[in-house]
């Protein structure tokens, strides 16, 4: 990343009148390629909860956030900010009135990056594993990038160091304890997630063996039955309750899994069922606080 001095055009609140001004910019890598943004922007609108998580950890004040945001540990931040739409649908009018210096999109709002850029400089900071990078590596790269944009490089380095130490401690805690199956419940429905999936970093980063290899790595996991869980018979079950994450009505993960087939597994009999914070892993996945919190929960589950 490099600093350059250039002439930038920033839209006014109504996004109808533009004025030219000299501003220092930072060139950064985003999900949609390299782009330049204002250095240390003052007014920030954030539409991605993973980004909001990490920016908050860095001490960056955010002016606009989506509502609902679903993550309780970010309630205070959200309460002090302006609502700028939902995770999927930005409120373009509110954003135009706000006239932010920078908009951070990503994940569920990734597709809105181009129209948002008509209001203010917008970066897509989606975190998603691909053939070139793991989810953890991308998340740490985003942390470093935010540190560069907001001139908080030292704080970013401290957060990275703390996370990597936590990762090594958790890796040691799970080593030699057996395999695991990651499942997500959505009311009565159950899906399984393996390496390469949105939750696959748990297997990859912790070197935690999969109870079932080659699970379909699609976005919403592979739909499975209770018979599937019984047949796989994992040593550990790592459970994500989507309904709880989004405040939906219906059966909880505990209720859904309370049946004879699941109860017959080694994981259930040994009490090795780990219910991770669903908002952290499902809504804020990739945020530095969320990833650290999930590691804490997995370590606690494996240490009994």
UniProtKB/TrEMBL annotation:
Keyword Transit peptide in record: no
Keywords from the UniProt entry: Ion transport, Iron, Iron transport, Signal, Transport
Gene Ontology biological process terms in this record: iron coordination entity transport
InterPro entries: ABC_transptr_periplasmic_BD (IPR002491), Bact_iron-sidero_bind (IPR051313), FatB (IPR033870)
GO CC annotations, alphabetized: outer membrane-bounded periplasmic space
Domain Fe/B12 periplasmic-binding: 43-304
Cytoplasm recorded as keyword: no
Signal peptide coordinates: 1-23
UniProt-annotated location(s): Cell envelope
PANTHER family: IRON III DICITRATE-BINDING PERIPLASMIC PROTEIN, PETROBACTIN-BINDING PROTEIN YCLQ
Family: Belongs to the bacterial solute-binding protein 8 family.
Protein's name according to its UniProt entry: Iron complex transport system substrate-binding protein
Natural source organism: Primorskyibacter flagellatus
């Amino acid at each position: 990343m490099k600093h350059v001095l250039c002439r930038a055009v920033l839209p006014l609140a109504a996004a109808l009148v533009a004025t030219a001004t000299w501003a220092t910019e930072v060139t950064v890598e985003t999900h949609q390629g390299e782009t330049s943004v204002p250095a240390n922007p003052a007014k920030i609108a954030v539409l991605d909860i993973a980004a909001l998580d990490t920016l908050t950890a860095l001490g960056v004040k955010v002016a606009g956030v989506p509502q609902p945001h679903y993550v309780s540990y970010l309630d205070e931040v959200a309460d002090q900010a302006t609502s700028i739409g939902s995770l999927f649908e930005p409120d373009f009018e509110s954003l135009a009135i706000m006239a932010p210096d920078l908009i951070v999109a990503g994940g569920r709002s990734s597709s809105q990056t181009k129209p948002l850029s008509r209001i203010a400089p917008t970066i897509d900071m989606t975190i998603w594993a691909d053939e070139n990078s793991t989810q953890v590596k991308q998340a740490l790269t985003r942390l470093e990038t935010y540190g560069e944009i907001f001139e908080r490089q030292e704080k970013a380095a401290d957060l990275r160091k703390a996370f990597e130490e936590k990762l090594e401690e958790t890796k040691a805690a799970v080593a030699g304890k057996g395999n695991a199956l990651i499942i997500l419940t959505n009311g009565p429905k159950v899906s399984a997630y393996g390496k390469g999936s949105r939750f696959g970093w748990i297997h990859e980063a912790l070197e935690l063996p999969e109870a079932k290899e080659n699970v379909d790595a699609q976005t919403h996991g592979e739909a499975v039955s209770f018979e599937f869980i019984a047949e796989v018979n994992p040593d550990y079950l790592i459970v994500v309750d989507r309904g709880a994450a989004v405040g939906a009505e219906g059966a909880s993960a505990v209720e859904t899994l309370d049946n004879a087939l699941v109860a017959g597994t080694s994981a259930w009999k040994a009490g090795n069922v780990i219910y991770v914070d669903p908002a952290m892993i499902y809504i804020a996945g990739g945020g530095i606080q969320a990833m650290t919190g999930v590691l804490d929960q997995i370590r606690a589950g494996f240490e009994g």
